[in-house]
Design goal:
By secondary structure, this protein is an alpha+beta fold. The chain has twelve helices and 17 strands. It has two domains: 213 residues, no CATH class; 219 residues, Aminoglycoside 3'-phosphotransferase, Chain: A, domain 2, CATH 3.90.1200.10. Strands 1-7-8-13-14-11-10-9 form an eight-stranded mixed beta sheet, with helices on one face. Strands 2, 3, 4, 5, 6 and 12 form a six-stranded antiparallel beta sheet that branches. Strands 15-16-17 form a three-stranded antiparallel beta sheet.
Length: 463
C-alpha cells in the first residue's frame, strides 16, 4: 500500500483573512469566465475552508450568495460549516497568491491590494497564473498525502516526473487548466459541488473497462471540508491532438468534406457509450412523459427570458408532445452530458473524448444520473450546425452531411440507428437548442442567430 504523508498547514485565522479579501473578491469574481453569477451582484461572501497550500499561497473554498434571476435555474452549493446548504449561491475554489510586490509578468493575475486585516498592504493575485505556484501544486500532487482538509491522491502505477514546466491553457472554459511539460493536463474545478466529480469518476471507470477513448486520470485532489468534493484531476495531455471544433472550422475554411471524420467520431461516441453502459448500472425504462414535461418547463422558462423564442413555442412544444407518445428508445445510462466538437480530440486517426464534467450549472446528482444516450448525440448534431454557421455564406449541406455521417458511424458500432428514433432525436435536439438560445442571450448575444435558426427549423419543419 502506498504510504501517505500528513503535511501540516500553518495556522490561519480564516475569518480575519477573509476580511482582508472580501472587497477584492466581490469585485474580481464576477469578471471571471468561470463565475456563474455574472448577471447578479455578490450579496454574500462566506468562507467555507482556508488552507495554506504552501508559503504565499492560500487555498480557499468560498460561498457566494446572490439574488436569483427571474428565470432562475437550480444552483447547488456546498453546505456551510454548520451543515445547512445555502438557499442560493455557489461554492468556488480559489488559489490566491499573496506577495508584497507582484512581478510585472503576472499583471493579468492581479486581484488587488488588501487594505485591511492581516493581509493589509499585500498584493493578492490568482496563483494558478503564477508558474511558481503551478509548479508547487504539481509537487503536492506527485506524492499522495493530506494537508488539512485537502487530500492528494494518485495512481501508484504511474510515477509523475518532477520539474515539468507549467503553462496556463488559454481557452474559454468553465474551469482552469494547466499543462505540464506537454505531458499532463490538470483541470482545477472552479465551481464546486459535494460528491465525486464525473470528470474523475467516469474516466477512472472507463479505464477499468479498457476503453482507450478517454485519457485515464493519474492524480487528483479533493477536500473533506465542509463536505467531500473533487477539486482537480490530472490526466495525460494529448500534445499532438486537435480538438474537433478547430478541425471542423479548418475543413470549412478549405472547402473540404468532413464526413469521414464525422463518421469516425460517431464510432468513437458509440464506443464510449458502450463502455459507460458496461461500467455503470443502467437506468430503468425511459420515462418519456416525465422527460417531455421537464423539457416543456425549460422551454417556458427560456421563453420568459428570450422574447424571440416566444413565436416558436407551440411548434417546439409539439416535439416534446411527440416524445411523450413515442416508444421508450434505448435504456437510460451514464452519458457524457455535454458532448460537442470542443469536447473531442483527434490524435492521428483516432478520436478521444474529454471533459466528462457535464454542464457545471446542473446539480451534481443530475450529472451523475442515467440519461438517454440520444442526449449526447443531439449535442454533437447541434455542434455541426454551429460550425457550419461560422462562415458565410452558411453551408447547411455541409452540416447535414456531417450529421448523417455521424449517425451512420454511431449506428455501425452501437447496433441501433439514432435516425430511426426521429421523435427522440428531434425532442433532444430541440431541448438542446432551447438551452443554447438562453445561453447565447445571456452571455453571447451576437451568437443568438445560430440556435434561433435551428429553433425555426425544428418548430416549423420538425426535422
Amino acid at each position: 500500500m502506498q504510504k501517505t504523508a500528513i503535511l501540516q498547514p500553518r495556522g490561519i485565522d480564516g475569518s480575519r483573512h477573509l476580511g482582508s479579501l472580501a472587497d477584492l473578491l466581490r469585485d474580481w469574481l464576477p469578471r471571471q469566465r468561470w463565475f456563474a453569477g455574472k448577471d447578479r451582484p455578490v450579496m454574500d461572501l462566506r468562507l467555507l475552508s482556508m488552507t495554506e497550500l504552501f508559503p504565499g499561497c492560500l487555498h480557499l473554498l468560498v460561498h457566494t450568495g446572490h439574488a436569483a434571476p427571474p428565470d432562475t435555474a437550480v444552483h447547488a452549493g456546498v453546505p456551510a460549516p454548520g451543515g445547512t446548504p445555502p438557499a442560493d449561491g455557489d461554492c468556488y475554489q480559489l488559489l490566491l497568491g499573496v506577495q508584497e510586490h507582484l512581478s510585472p509578468r503576472l499583471g493579468r493575475a492581479l486581484i488587488g491590494r488588501a487594505q485591511d486585516g492581516p493581509l493589509a498592504g499585500l498584493t493578492v493575485y490568482d496563483a494558478l497564473q503564477d508558474p511558481r505556484s503551478a509548479h508547487l501544486l504539481l509537487e503536492r500532487m506527485r506524492h499522495s498525502g493530506s494537508l488539512g482538509p485537502l487530500k492528494f491522491e494518485s495512481d501508484p502505477s504511474v510515477p509523475l516526473p518532477a520539474g515539468l514546466a507549467p503553462r496556463l491553457l488559454d481557452a474559454e472554459q468553465s474551469n482552469t487548466s494547466l499543462v505540464y511539460g506537454d505531458a499532463y493536463i490538470l483541470k482545477v474545478f472552479r465551481r464546486i459541488q459535494p460528491g465525486v466529480n464525473p470528470d474523475l469518476e467516469v474516466p477512472v471507470a472507463l479505464a477499468e473497462q479498457g476503453c482507450g477513448r478517454v485519457p485515464a486520470p493519474v492524480a487528483w485532489f479533493r477536500t473533506s471540508r465542509p463536505q467531500d468534493a473533487t477539486l482537480g484531476v490530472l490526466q495525460p495531455f494529448l500534445n499532438d491532438a486537435s480538438d474537433g471544433w478547430a478541425l471542423a472550422l479548418q475543413a470549412l475554411a478549405r472547402g473540404e468534406d468532413f464526413t469521414a471524420e464525422a463518421y469516425a467520431l460517431g464510432q468513437a461516441t458509440a464506443d464510449v457509450h458502450l463502455a459507460l453502459a458496461a461500467a455503470f448500472p443502467l437506468g430503468g425504462p425511459a420515462e418519456n412523459g416525465r422527460t417531455a414535461a421537464a423539457m416543456s418547463d425549460r422551454l417556458d422558462a427560456a421563453a420568459q427570458h428570450v422574447t424571440a423564442l416566444r413565436p416558436f413555442v407551440p411548434g417546439l412544444r409539439a416535439a416534446f408532445e411527440a416524445l411523450a407518445a413515442c416508444d421508450p428508445g434505448p435504456p437510460a445510462q451514464r452519458i457524457h452530458g455535454d458532448l460537442h466538437l470542443g469536447q473531442v480530440l483527434r490524435a492521428g486517426r483516432e478520436w478521444f473524448v474529454i471533459d466528462f464534467e457535464g454542464e457545471p450549472s446542473r446539480p451534481l446528482s443530475e450529472r451523475r444520473s442515467a440519461h438517454s444516450p440520444v442526449r449526447d448525440i443531439a449535442g454533437m448534431l447541434r455542434s455541426f450546425d454551429y460550425a457550419a454557421r461560422q462562415r458565410r455564406p452558411w453551408r447547411p449541406q455541409w452540416a447535414s452531411r456531417c450529421r448523417e455521417a455521424y449517425c451512420a458511424g454511431y449506428a455501425g458500432r452501437a447496433g441501433w440507428d439514432p435516425r430511426k428514433k426521429h421523435a427522440l432525436l428531434r425532442a433532444y435536439e430541440t431541448d438542446r437548442a432551447v438551452y443554447e438560445v438562453l445561453y447565447e442571450a445571456r452571455h453571447r448575444p451576437a451568437w443568438l442567430p445560430v440556435p434561433m435558426a435551428a429553433i425555426e427549423r425544428l418548430a416549423v419543419r420538425g426535422d
